Amino acid sequence: MDKIGIVVAMEEEKNAVYELMEDVDMEESYELDFYKGKIQGKKCVLVQSGIGKVNAARTTQILIDKYKIDRVINVGAAASINPMLNIGDVLIGKYVVQHDFDITAFGHSKGYITGVGNNIRCDSDFLYKVEEKIEEEKKFNKKEENKRDYNIKIGIVATGDVFCSEVDMRDEIRGTFNADAVDMECAAIGQVCYLDNVPFVVIRGISDTPDGNNAGTFDENLELASKRCSEVLNEILSDKF
Prior knowledge:
- The chain is 36% helix and 29% strand.
- By secondary structure, the protein is α/β, with parallel strands linked by helices.
- It has a single domain, classed as Nucleoside phosphorylase domain (Rossmann fold).
- Strands 5-9-8-6-10 form a five-stranded mixed β-barrel, surrounded by five helices.
- The longest helix is centred in the last third of the chain and has 24 residues.
- It is globular.
């Protein structure tokens, strides 16, 4: 049976996933708490990395090395930069990019990483199942009582070591990368997984949108975004996707 590693950045995100787990044991290593247990009968190891690319990358490598992880799922909140993606919706990553990685001075496009490329594709088999599920729900949801309270979309997540709050920055990232959401961890996690040849999945709940005043909106909606992510994660691990 595959062993799944689940990486989150913040306490609220960790708590939402932890509530799904059974038979949990915790062990501390490298000053990180690793929660070993099961979700829907699947072996999982949950860890909170802290915010930012370095924390996320470090934690992911420790997780893979220590627990021999077969698949990594990154779960957490993100800001929408696509007007069709609303607070409370869930974005499944198709690609991840690092919007603040810049070696354009050497003739490369913004976000290009030597040895990696312009972006990192998330697990193709998983994405195929998600696409099928979304199409099924479109047919099933013709009846109003069957509809979710939120949408699940597939798109591009752009990562950088900055909390994106400015409209100009939002529009630049959207225009440069055709991204749908921004966060501070997932592309760093994705890069580690790519280099380690470990399949990688991103589930991000929308908590805010950069508008010059979204730090407060993020705080207000962090628990909601975390809860929505955990609901989708639970469905995925129950093989409903």
